[in-house]
Amino acid sequence: MKSTDSSTTSPAAAPRVNYRQVAPAAVAAMLVVQRAVNESGLEHSLLELVKLRASQINGCAYCLDLHWRDAKKAGETDERLYLLGTWEESPGYTERERAALRWTEALTRLSSGHVSDATFAAARAHFTEPELVQLTLAIVVINGWNRFSVGFKVPPRAEF
Fold first, then answer.
1. Closest of 80, 87, 90 to residue 104, by C-alpha
2. pLDDT, mean of each 10-residue run, the chain (160 residues)
3. For 27-37, b where at least 16 C-beta lie within 10 A, e where not — what string?
4. What pTM does this model have?
5. Other CB atoms within 10 A of residue 96 CB
């Protein structure tokens, strides 16, 4: 039987709520934290991979579109972007990137279980303590942005 509910098959023309307009203080707070991540000293390419992987897990079309384009502008290759969802089986990612992606998945999927000691040890082997805190903050922020965009059905390339 074919579903007649078009909300699952076609994207929304506009967000449910223009959260930037109705809660500018909340957006300003998020931007302060985002700026801290951007100025953390972590590699831009690594941060884009983290943003993309978390956004894949969360099903955030707006963030996937945005960060895919940002990664491409920064010189990321098509192959690495196409294979990001299968990074564990795919060549072309450094051990540091793999540790960051594993950490991203563990923190993004907390409802599936706590972060294992092995996952922490892998991250700790490739990141200093300050870097690991900054990486964790990057994951926190993209998960926050994903919740805004998924919750309010922000379509790709939406203009506020």
1. 87
2. 46 82 96 97 97 98 96 95 96 97 98 95 98 98 97 88
3. beebeeebeeb
4. 0.89
5. 15
